[in-house]
């Protein structure tokens, strides 16, 4: 094959790979990220509706318009806010902010978000000690979500245009690149035949021009001194060594792909933790406590007189409940911040592993298996609750191995993530994810079992191959990287399933002490 054709084929293959990666990225964004944002907006609508309903009991019970306005003001300031309507028990509107759509706002299931004509709405009743005081309907706009989808399509179109321009440029480049090289080949043959007085005068672009000047300079030096020719040969040897090093680095693409996959899993956990902390702060009872104190301050006669009223009699119990709730919220937020710190530490370790390429990726240290599995489960905790997945833990007590903690954590994150996706695709009770830990002399066995979609028998031998996947939008990196990591730790990873719809079990077997770096990856 001619050099021009090889250059054209090589550049076209690279551009096709780039186009495929961009298409996969856009498809993954459209199928995974946009629905996830919509789910978050639905959840936010339900949560704010429920929380607003619980906070309106005092304003409606006291028939205080000013307090009612202050209560809904936080909802109005939300960047996605569209409208809020508060009505009394008999259906008479008491407050309306924004522009609600025509139609029944208080229909459908209570506190269940519904999408209608670019809006997401939900409603709930407001009651105090069993007495219905009214109801509230809250609506949020999907404009930001729609704008995100539009920008994604624009970016995809821009990338496609750039790709077409790159294809056109590669074709032109291949045609103009060969002529100077042929002239250099002819020149080289003449020099090899002894014509050291020859000089290369052909026009050449960019780096080829520099190469032409270098060849002319080299020829002149060969003509003047034999010693300089030997120096030029040494430089050529150095260039050859550099090319070999670049070739070896190119072979690490699979490692980099696995790193990106694992970092993506940990970033999902970070997003869940940050969302939970934000929700805790938004749902805090501090605002209700402040309003209660303002109500006491505004009462004629002060605290002593207020305590003699019906509302005042429940104030101490209410303050006690709020105090306990605030303490619980503080503890939960501290737990989530600890989780965020652990996830950031894990990402730093993954990046350090990628930078070291094929060198040993981490230090061996005692690892408590139960605590490590709990960390991996915590990264998907909100998804388990949202999809009604029951997590069953069956750990042998006090199991510790000496190994690379971060590699073990990556393996468990991948196995638990795959089990969660299998359960989401097969919504047939019971929805269970079971993690077991057993000791066996010099080894430890960890099994992750799900009651999900299952694995066909013909796929059991292929499931750990690089690039093999049956998951829509999947890339086939996670299980392949996990199997490799298990072998590097001196253990093994196996899969078993009774067939489609009957769940699957993944078994990770580890030595108590890992002799990392001396195991065959084949």
Features:
five-stranded antiparallel sheet, disordered C terminus, 16% strand, 14 helices, 522 residues, five-stranded mixed sheet, elongated, single chain, Helix Hairpins, alpha+beta, Beta-Lactamase
Write a concise synopsis of the structure shown.
Helices cover 59% and strands 16% of the residues.
Set down the secondary structure blueprint:
Layout: H1 3-55, H2 57-62, H3 65-76, E1 81-88, E2 93-98, E3 114-116, E4 119-128, E5 131-141, H4 143-192, H5 206-224, H6 226-250, H7 253-282, H8 286-298, H9 302-307, H10 310-355, E6 365-368, H11 369-378, H12 381-386, E7 390-395, E8 400-403, H13 405-425, E9 432-440, E10 443-450, H14 478-488, E11 492-496, E12 504-511
Parallel strand pairs: 7-9
Antiparallel strand pairs: 1-2, 1-5, 3-4, 4-5, 6-8, 9-10, 10-12, 11-12
Helix pairs in contact: 1-4, 4-5, 5-6, 7-10, 8-10, 11-13, 13-14
Q: Kindly, what is the distance between the CA atoms of the first and last residues, rounded to a whole number of angstroms?
A: 34 Å
Q: Structural class, from helix and strand content?
A: alpha+beta
Low-confidence stretches: 243-255, 356-360, 516-522
User: How many helices?
Assistant: 14
Largest sheet: 5 strands, antiparallel
* Succession of helices and strands: HHHEEEEEHHHHHHHEHHEEHEEHEE
What's the pLDDT, averaged over the residues?
Answer: 78
Strand content: 15-25%
Give the overall shape, derived from the CA principal axes: elongated
CATH C-level class of the largest domain: Alpha Beta
Helix content bin: 55-70%
Total strands:
12
CATH homologous superfamily caption of the largest domain = PAS domain
Computed Rg: 33 Å
- CATH level-two architecture of the largest domain: 2-Layer Sandwich
